[in-house]
Specification:
Elements: E1 2-6, H1 11-24, E2 28-31, H2 41-47, E3 56-59, H3 62-67, E4 74-77, E5 83-84, E6 95-98, H4 107-110, E7 115-118, H5 130-144
Parallel strand pairs: 1-2, 1-6, 2-3, 4-6, 4-7, 5-7
Helix pairs in contact: 1-2, 1-5
Length: 146
């Protein structure tokens, strides 16, 4: 499994996701532009001393990422559309892509996804924190693998 952040904006969220990928042994793909420098102190602080364990792969744009040859399905998340997360059935080679904190994934990315899932939220709540959403989906995926 791979975790992909498309245009992440908030350094501590990306740092938390990096820490998760280090712990789970999953690659972390970051698709530029990023809303911060990879040298950002908040990014480094959130990832603690786990950065040497992060399998970080940086992509200049979405097209380069797609051309990079990942195998497996591209699974997207959205607050606006998609099947309920409870419908998700994992495959060991799934690739999860998450959008930027303020706007989510654009149609360009959603159209390339093999499936889009949503976590229903109560009225008035626009979205969950990015790192919370990543952790939620990774926990769901890992708990359902055979």
């Amino acid at each position: 499994m791979n975790i992909i952040l498309y245009h992440p904006e908030i350094p501590p969220n990306t740092g938390n996701v990096a820490r998760l990928t280090a712990g789970l042994g999953m690659p972390l793909h970051l698709i530029e532009p990023l809303g911060f420098s990879l040298e950002d102190r908040y990014l480094k602080r959130a990832g603690l001393d786990y950065w040497p364990l992060v399998d970080l792969r940086l992509w200049p744009d979405f097209e380069s990422f797609l051309a990079g040859g990942l195998s497996g399905r591209l699974i997207a998340t959205s607050t606006k559309t998609g099947r309920l997360f409870t419908d998700y059935q994992p495959h060991p080679d799934d690739n999860f892509i998450f959008g930027p904190e303020t706007v989510g994934l654009p149609p360009l990315v959603l159209d390339k996804a093999d499936a889009v899932y949503t976590i229903p939220l109560r009225p008035g709540v626009r979205s969950l924190n990015l790192s919370t959403t990543v952790g939620f989906f990774m926990g769901l995926a890992l708990s359902r693998l055979p």
